[in-house]
Amino acid sequence: MRKLASVQTIHNVEAIEGADKIEVVSVLGWKCVAKKGEFKRLDLCVYFEIDSFLPVVEAFEFLRKGSFRKNDLNGEGFLLKTRNFRGQISQGLALPISILDKFRPLDGVSWKNGDDVTNLLGVKKWEIAEIATGSGKIIGPFPYQIPKTDEIRVQAEPGLIDEFKNVPYYISTKMDGTSVTMYIIDGKFGVCSRNYEIGDDETSPAWRFVHRYDIRQRIEEGAKEIGINNIAVQGEFCGEGIQNNPLKLSSPEWYIFTLYDIDKGKRLGLEQMKNFCVSAGINMVPVEEVKLHLPYNTIDKLIERAKGKYPSGNQKEGIVIRPVDTTYSKILNGPLSMKVLNNDYLLKDN
Q: How far apart are CA 243 and CA 205, in angstroms?
């Protein structure tokens, strides 16, 4: 479960050139702008991740001017996004540990690094209504046999970099669209958005895509080629009307980034995914780099590597890094993988 608000340690405090009221602090792999003198190295703080939606209470009213949001799905509150202060990127929010006293007196509680205070502070994840994105009619929950698509940002778990040591890896382009999963389970074919199963009707762009390009038959052929019966195929659905179509596509496209063997409960590796996509005639996410050893051994190097543009000229969303062969991560308690977003992309709407 993602910790939207947690107790963390300030690892470093640095000055911002030309700023006399703010400075930058390092928390996990993130850099946040804070009031000057508010923290010193090794202080505990409460860190709020980006995309956190903080409640409307007095303790957070200082965020109102730039962060207040209100809609029917999320209600009203304060949304944390990537910001730029005097040239310094700020991702998330660090507040003194004393903020917890405003929600519950400590009463002898000794807070420690990593404590999850999301529920205590009433923090939620900012959600975008899927029905508003034109996903289609919801007919049920996301199938329990299939993991949802949700890559973790390396800044949230910097230890992932160490887990990639001596592991052959590949880097793919993070396409900017909406997640669509298609599956075959015991002969049943289904289509899902990020969180729900979607009905087969004209309100669903993904189902229209399925019928127009015979996607079910293609998936069956690809699965047969790699010897799998029950399969989940996950990819980014891109095109007109989706995230402002930054790829400037004239017709919808589906870029595969994950194959999942449902019977074995296992994500498949790069070569099997390539073979599947070639046999099925379906696009795979662009692979930018394949090497034996990951040379980007710091957060800053990875952030620099994530920069770039799509062929359309728009800023790309970022990159995803995975082992060539599926590898277990102790940190994630599942397949090793991480994403790095392009800061230029994150700032484009701010």
A: 14
Going by C-beta distance under 8 Å and a sequence separation of 6 or more, which residues neighbour residue 187? Answer: none
Which of 39, 38, 33 has its CA nearest to residue 88?
33
Q: What 3 state SS string does 275-307 have?
A: HHHHHHCCCECCEEEEECCCCCCCHHHHHHHCC
**What is the C-alpha to C-alpha distance for residues 117 and 333, in angstroms, rounded to an integer?**
22
Residue 104 confidence (pLDDT)? 72
> pTM of the predicted model, to two decimals?
0.86
DSSP character at residue 95: E
pLDDT, tens digit (0-9, with 9 covering 90-100), for 316-334: 999 999 999 999 999 999 9
Cβ-count burial of 122 within 10 angstroms (0-12 exposed, 13-18 middle, 19+ buried)?
middle
pLDDT surpasses 50 at 161: yes
| Total residues found in the chain within this entry | 350
Angle at 8 between CA 76 and CA 88, to 5 degrees: 70
